[in-house]
Structures are given as C-alpha cells and as structure tokens.
Predict the 3D structure of the following.
Amino acid sequence: MVANGRQEVLSVKIDPEVIHPEEAEMLQDLILAAVNDALSRAKSMVHEEMGKLTQGLNLPNIPGLL
C-alpha cells in the first residue's frame, strides 16, 4: 500500500496468488476507495469533535489547525 502525507492511500497491490488474477485490479480499486472514504470520514469526525471541544474558547483562526 502506498500513502501520501495528506493521509490518502494512493495505491493498493494485492498478490495475484491469493485471489483470482482477473479480479485483482477491481479489488484493489474497491479497497483503495473504501480506505480513502474511511480516512475522509475520520478526518471529518475529528474536525467536528474538535470544534465542539474548542467552542467558546476564542482561539485564533489558524489555517490547518482544525
């Protein structure tokens, strides 16, 4: 599996010996999409929960902080 610094999975490689070789590319694409969707949902949840925790603290708007 290959990922970047933005916590996105860029590629998934499955050993063709463990599955039907003709299905490898489709399975890799499905796993890639599912993992990136899960990471995106996790980031959104963290952002939402941090917003709840910091509500009313009058913190400066620092881009990328939340």
